[in-house]
Amino acid sequence: MESLKHKLPSDVEEEDAFPDVKRVRPAADLPPEMWELIFRNLNAYWLRSARLTCSSWDQIIRGSSRLMSKFVLTLTTYNFMEDRKMVRNLLATGGGYTRVKMDFELIGIHKPRENWLKPLGTTLRTLTLEFSCTEVLLTGLLKELPNLKQLKLIVRSHWFGSGVPSIRLDKLDELSITDPVPNILSFCRMLCPQLKALKLHGYCGAKSKLKNEIVALISSTSRTLKELTIRVSKKIVDDLVEIEDLRLARLAVHGDADDVLRFVKQQPIIEDLEISRNIGISTLDEIISVLPKLKKLQVTIVNRGIQKTFSFMKLLTIESLTIRIEDWFMPIGANPLLNLTDCILTNLRSLSLFRCNLTGQFLSDLQRTHVSELTLESCSLPRLSDLAPLKLLHHIELNNNEYLNGPADDDSRCSSSVRSLKISEDDRSNLLAAAKIFPNLECYEAAGYTDIDEGVLEVILQHSPLVKELRFPMFHFGDVNCLRYAVHRFPALKTMVIHCSKEKRASFVESVRGESCNVAVEFTC
Question: What SUPFAM superfamilies is this protein classified in (predicted)?
């Protein structure tokens, strides 16, 4: 992050800026609690700079788990091969870090000694470990990390021994395993006896040779387990439905629709459900009917040419809803797939729709909901301005939608409650229309490769003069003048995020040096 605040004039050297004769007595030291409140507003880049400024600040930051959680310590096999002494010294002072990533693939003889990790283990809560090693090395690493809350294992080996771990991670709440091999799930079953969340990513559940280990791990932690990510098969479901004390609150599942339905029927208290495989409307209706406490739903609906309508009628408790349509836009004039008429959705706050054909009636019915966050991606709708009357809408994301009546309705007199807009748009006319239809924005983000120039910025300024944050994290600006325009013309601007090469970055910073500017600029590469 580059700060443009309090820049010295370009002809003044830092050493000469404050002559000794004019130095004043330093202000009284602030208590550590005050410094922590100040540092809380800094990102990891500036926190690192603060730690390097003086030992007092370093101690204050190290002593705060909230501040240290912004850092991720990354260690690789290469580090241990090339500079073991440096890594050892780093680990010796590693107390304070709460998150660590270790890439120990093919580490072999370069592995760290067990006691090197001891200082790190006092505060470490989250570990991501990519490895191709034995159960002996894994036990040795985890032995010094007794306070872990989250463990993510990315397995890069084809063999794992059947040994019994000599330790237990009683404080571990969440275990995530990618590409497991035989024996490792059994190892984890003895290692982590009180899991609250188990995430088995990818095709883990589809590997028949792992089926027994998966079921045994879930069964052994069933009394505490509340969250599960899994790919199910018929055989796995046959065993899972027999676990009487398994009561999940969150489930992310991939599998045949009938198997998913059969499993979900045994989990009536689910509040958060994600179904990553396509599912028919009839099956979805059945699933919803057996989940009276459902608050969050992510689902992909398959439409095989059968014009059946999905009604939101049963989603009385839903707070967040994401719907994807597998097929492309339905033909214009076809029966609407989504139906909001006569639905009472007083709890719905977040709605995300992908590849949906939204009718004027649906958008009119949407006005009766309490939706405050709306995402539309690759959807078709009559007019962009149909979204303006949503009076409780605060944040909206628009990603390459189709407006059947074009952008001609970009009436600058539109009033909208939207204060945050994220847009990805190839059509310049739609980009300009959005800036007019959603005035009085406080945050504007152009996602993807949306083409932003001074003309677009001028329209944004005209209709949203009090924008506080401009974000262009993906678009590669080539015109420094465009950047300067944004920084100097928006009177309320506080933060700007841009994608910019190092060469252009230096030119931009130099171009505003010495000028009054209260904007913090963050560059992404």
Answer: F-box domain, L domain-like
In b/e form, how buried is each residue of 334-366, taking b as 16+ CB within 10 angstroms? eebbbbbeebebeebbbbbbbbbbbbeebbebb
Domain ranges of the chain: 382-525
Which candidate, 322, 324, 361, 325, places its Cα nearest to that of 343? 361
Query: Over 70: is that where the pLDDT of 21 sits?
Result: no
Instruction: Look at 115-129, 196-210, 264-278, 509-523 and tell me which has the smallest mean pLDDT.
Output: 509-523
b or e along 264-286 (b: 16 or more beta carbons within 10 Å of the residue's beta carbon)? bebbeebbbbbbbbbbbbebbee
User: Residue 52: its pLDDT value, please?
Assistant: 86
* Residue 103: φ, ψ to 5°: -105, 95
For every residue of 358-403, which 3-state class applies, written as one string?
A: CCHHHHHHHCCCCCCEEEEECCEECCHHHHCCCCCCCEEEEECCEE
Give the start-end residues of each E strand in 427-494: 443-446, 469-476
Which residue would you say has higher pLDDT here, 463 or 91?
463
The enclosing H or E element of 32 equals: helix 32-39
- The pLDDT score that the predictor gives to residue 7 is 37
The number of CA neighbours under 13 Å toward the Cβ of 352 is 11
Percent of the chain as helix, strand, coil, to the nearest 5: 35, 20, 45
Nearest to 287 by CA among 255, 260, 308: 260
Mean pLDDT (the chain) is 83
- Give residue-wise pLDDT tens across range 286-311: 999 999 999 999 999 886 655 577 77
Task: Measure Cα distances from 51 to 42, 46, 71, 303 in Å.
Answer: 12, 9, 12, 56
State which amino acid sits at residue 385.
S
Residue tagged 């540092």 (tokens): 39
Most confident option among 459-468, 482-491, 515-524: 459-468
Cα-based angle 214, 217, 220 (whole degrees, multiple of 5): 145
Q: At what angle do helices 55-62 and 44-53 cross, to 10 degrees?
A: 130
The amino acid that residue 453 corresponds to is D
